[in-house]
From TrEMBL, chain A:
This is 5'-Nucleotidase C-terminal domain-containing protein. Residues 83-222 form the 5'-Nucleotidase C-terminal domain. It comes from Flavobacterium jejuense. Signal peptide: none annotated.
TrEMBL record, chain B:
The keyword Hydrolase applies. It comes from the Bacteria. This is Bifunctional metallophosphatase/5'-nucleotidase. InterPro entries: 5'-Nucleotdase_CS, 5_nucleotidase/apyrase, Calcineurin-like_PHP, Metallo-depent_PP-like. It holds the Pfam family Metallophos. Signal peptide: none annotated.
Amino acid sequence: MVNVKKKRVNTSYFVILLTFLTLLSCKTHKNNIYEVDGKRININEQYISDSNIENFIAPYRKHINNDLDSILAFNPVTQEKSKGKWQTNIGNLFAETTIALSNPIFKKRENKEIDFCLLNHGGIRSIIPEGNITSRTAFEIMPFENSVMIVGLSADEVRTLAAYFLKEKKPHPLAGLTIYTDSSETNVIDILVNNKHIEDSKTYYVATTDYLANGGDNMNFFRDSKIKFDLDYKLRNLFIDYFKKIDTLPNITTERVIIK
Amino acid sequence: MERRDFLQKTVASSALLSLGGMSLSSFSTLETKKITILHTNDVHSHIDPFPADHPRNPNMGGAARRASIIDQIRKEEKSVILLDAGDIFQGTPYFNYYGGELEFKLMSMMQYDLATMGNHDFDNGIDGFHAQLGHANFDFVSANYDFKNTILDGIVKPYKIINRDGIKIGVFGLGVELDGLVDKKLYKETIYNNPIEVAKSITRTLKEDKKCDLVICLSHIGFKYRNEPERVCDITLAQQTKDIDLIIGGHTHTFLDKPVLEKNLEGKEVLINQVGCFGINLGRIDFYLSDDTKYDNTTRNIILG
């Protein structure tokens, strides 16, 4: 008995010692951040290009440039969105081209006709300078991936759209619709769709973009409509197809808002 | 008899444990380590440099130049981590023609480690993004996009832990609210969760469970919204969380001259950096770490600019 007790005392010390050592050995293992050094490196011509990367990019660049720079049409008059109060030549071109190329698809798929087109002024991203037209032109005027949507509107909703147009005082691209106002330029007096008075019972099919159809630029009349057809046709591709079809770009000056 | 047996076993196992402990670390010398973080954001398919006559960014940017700068730093530093904070896609015809293939291939050649998803990375739809992933030799992380019911389920993970030179670096991703910014038909069933709530839970995992030495957030939620002070951004993320060491931001195309410091929930400094857009700048943050206990309760020395 005595023997056993003595042994127990010895081992207890040993356990305490080992436990202490174990704890001590873990203590130094944590890594602390003691200094941070942050800066910005501007990438400019003082750095040489990595030739591996440069050679890898080259064939992609060549293919794109060949494609983008081949001449598709000619533009005799500079088209720009900053010249015009209620309409601009480039806006008219946007809207009329959208109807012309979307209508055959809509007719084939849904057996219906597009009545008019409303896009947004902010969506025109560049001028079209006088001179040759290439695919690059289409990328410049329409860099985004937006596609054509057809939205069905009632006669009342078309009236709301006309009121919105006057209130906005922006030359949003418009085709197929004529708004008559008085000298106040705020009251809608009359609306013609393709030179015909609007009929209360009719549904009007309006070409626009998916961005506006989902309520972009506060075009809530589009957002709230339950009748929508996605043509899955990118606006940029539509312009490229159009430039390929024609030789010379028209300069369209049709007035869409008429003051009586 | 039973009691004695127990004691003997305890002694034996304690001895074994401490021997293991000693051989691992107790008598090793103190070590200093350096981790170099390089980062880009919102490159937007800008593969070529801007032309010399560009009004804003003449002769700036370019993937081939960025590659040579990164290469040089890799030669000088032992532990380099290369990150991107999203919006790799969209901005030049390279994207429209090749759908992101070239962007991913070049980033793989530069040996990017990790990226997060920006809203424009959905521009060809979640399927268009998925189709290009085969060209990427690096991973994507996003913690607040729930991809459970999408094609990216199990592919884009909330975080990744990178081990360099014995240092554990936890990197998680955060994305911007998609509703109103990206068409639903593009992001499909992706669910957006509150970035701050998600960050709180992820940082706990990375710091407490996974014992990361360094926690980095790759964020595409935006640096700050002056006209919408309530909107979640990198500044509020830093203020309302803890244990994040560095936020690498994107989305707002913010050109910071140098990283910004913000105090977190515990009053500790969080670094926030964003380097503008279009591959014009490369961000560089060097972290110095030591296992010396004298740094246990000291504040870190931060040198900026």
